[in-house]
Write a structure and sequence with these properties.
This protein is mainly alpha-helical. Helices cover about 60% and strands about 5% of the residues.
Amino acid sequence: MFSIGQMSKQTHVKIPTIRYYEQMGLIAPPVRTEGNQRRYSQAALERLSFIKHARDLGLTIEAIRDLTDLSAHPEKPCADAHRIAKEHLASVRERIAKLQRLEVELARIEVGCDTGQMESCYVIQALADHSLCVEEH
């Protein structure tokens, strides 16, 4: 059995976040000692590690909930888990493309600035007037 502090230390998840995951139903409520301290099982530690890794990969709480629900049925096909991963990958690729457009636009704005006086600062002008942007971002 693990205390909440041990869970936090082993998974690098902050204690308030562990409590939040409990409230959200992602982690089963722990047993309590006579002193009302939480005590978590090995399964809870493994679940928290799963959640942490999924969050590090950018999955939403809802996607994680769906994946944990799916994992409770090892006899079922993994098509739904595959779909969730595929949708998340598409979302990540979309964000990367948007960030690449932002990078191009910011580089163009930065290069356009001659570092003269603020009254003619192209950075300020471009931020104030979206029509000066070349691409939609």
